[in-house]
Description:
Blueprint lengths: L1 E9 L8 H7 L9 E3 L5 E3 L3 E8 L9 E13 L3 E12 L8 H5 L4 E5 L4 H9 L14 H13 L15 E9 L8 E6 L5 E7 L1 H4 L2 H27 L4 H15 L14 H9 L3 H26 L12
Parallel strand pairs: 6-7, 8-10
Antiparallel strand pairs: 1-6, 1-8, 2-3, 3-5, 4-5, 5-6, 5-7, 9-10
Helix pairs in contact: 6-7, 6-9, 7-9
Amino acid sequence: MLIGEIHTGLVQHSTALSLPEMVQLLQLREGAHVATSVRPTSYAASAEIPDGVDCMLPSAAHRRVRAVGTMLSRASIIGGRVIQASAAASVETSAAGRRLAWPHYIARAGRLEVIGKWDPADMVDGFLRPRPGAAAEEERLEPGGIATRLIDRVQMAEALDRSPPLRAARTHLRWAVHIDEARADDGLLTFTVDADGQRSLEMVLGSQDAAEAEGLCRDLALHDWLLTTVNAALDAAHTAPPGAVPRAARLGPVVEHLSRLWTPGARVAPAMLTAWEQLERRPGFTRQWQSSIAAARDLLAVATFELLHTARPAGAQSLTKT
C-alpha cells in the first residue's frame, strides 16, 4: 500500500514568483532537475529527496510494529503563489524479516519495509484517524514532520521577503491507498475533513492507478486549500467591523491573487480523472468554489461602491432622483 502527507500554504512573498524564481527556490538538490510547466498556470517541482526513517508504524490498536526505509519528499510551487511539500512511500512486508544495512534501503528509495506481522487496515486507521490525545510510547512514522521541514526550508529562503498580500493558514492532507486489482476499473475514494481541520483521503485502487495517486492527492490538496482560504476570507469579511475598508482589505487580495489558480485535474494523470469526477460529485469542489468566489466578488463590489460613495467630493451632485 501507499501512504503520504501533503502540506499546502501561501508563498511568503509580496508578489507572485516568476517561473525562473520558482526554479531557483526549488533547487534543493545540487545538480538535480526542477520540473516545470506553464499551462494552465506556472508550475515548478523539485527533484525528489530521500529521507531515511526507522520507527514504529502508526497503529489504531497501538501495536508495536517496526518499519525501516526511505520516504520521498518534494516541494512544488503553483502559479507563483502557492507552495506544497509532500512526503510519501509504499509500505510492504520485509522479505528478510529483520533490519538490514542502510545501503539496502537507500537503493529502494520510497519504500518502507515492515519487520514483523502487521495489519494494513490497522495501520491506515492509525495514520488517517489518530486518536486525539493518545500519546504513543515510542516514535511513530510521521510524514508530516518531513513535509513541515521541507516547506519551512523553502519559505525561509533569502529570496522571499515574507510580506504576502494576504494571510492564509496551511492545510494538511494525509492519504493512503489500498491496492486491490478488483477495483482497477472503479476505484473508491473517501475524503474527510475532521473537526480539527485535518484532511484525509482513503483510496482503493488497482496497482496501475495507485502509481498515479500522489498526483491526484497534490491536486486535491491544492484546490481544497484554495477553497478553504476563500471561505476563511468570506467569514472574516462578514465578521469585520462595519465599513467598506475592512471588507475590501480582506477580500480584494483573495480575488486578485487566487481566483486564477482554480484548475482542477490539470496535472492529474488521465487514468485518475475518474477519481476527480467522484470528488466533483461529492463534496462538489467546483460548485463550492464558484459559489464562494462569486460571493467574494459581490461583497468586494459592494465594498468598492461604498468606498467610492464615501470618497465623493463635497458638493458633488448625486445621480439618484428623490
